[in-house]
Amino acid sequence: MDTAVKEKQQLNKKTKEDPKNFGATLWVYKGEKGALIPLLQSAQDTYGYIPESAIDGISEVTGIPSADIYGVITFYSQFRLKPLGKYVVKICDGTACHVNGSKDLISIIRDELGITNNETTEDGLFTLQEVACLGCCSLSPVIMINDETYGRLDSKKLKTILKEYKSKES
Ligand code: FES
Q: For a substitution probing ligand 1, which of 133, 144, 150, 152 has the most ligand atoms within 8 Å of its CB?
């Protein structure tokens, strides 16, 4: 493997372990074409989202204006400008879940939490992510909250689950 690639991989690893290393990661890409996306990925891996300070740093080393970097971040749905909530609620709207009523469940989550896809509640507790398949179609309709999977849901079960998470925090 090329030494420069190895160096970047090691830096990315160090940066994940300690966000202070993000500065070093930035400078290793200085002047390199196509550095924007890897730097955005590194920032997001480091902080869980892409903070303004990282955008400023990326702008400095790449020479790309911050406004253009914001444009790229908002274009790609995998990048986030805000931290994820404490609980990431993933609801599947893949074929199996869809035919078993996931649309109604999505409406319930949106109503109960007051957020839409890829949004986080004001209190930072919940982020909603609508996804294509969670890999457990036989349990459809399915949601995951962090690493916990809840299957064969109906509106009543879903409301109970959300209530439990909310009351844990109140
Ligand atoms: S379609 Fe929903 S888990 Fe696969």
A: 133
* Cα–ligand 1 centroid distance for 139 (angstroms): 8
3-state helix/strand/coil string of 105-170: HHHHHHHHHCCCCCCECCCCCEEEEEECCCCCHHHCCCEEECCEEECCCCHHHHHHHHHHHHHHHC
Q: Which atom of ligand 1 lies nearest, measured to the CA of 136?
A: 3
Whether 74 is in the pocket of ligand 1, judged by its Cβ within 6 Å, is no
Ligand 1 centre from 152 Cα, in Å? 11
* CATH class of the region 87-168: alpha beta
> Over its length of 170 residues, how does the chain's per-residue pLDDT go in tens digits?
666 667 666 666 666 666 666 776 777 777 777 889 989 998 998 888 999 999 998 998 889 999 999 999 999 988 999 899 999 999 999 999 999 999 999 999 999 999 999 899 999 999 999 999 999 999 999 999 999 999 999 999 999 999 999 999 88
Query: How do the domains of the chain map onto residue ranges?
Result: 3-75, 87-168
What is the pTM (predicted TM-score) of this model? 0.72
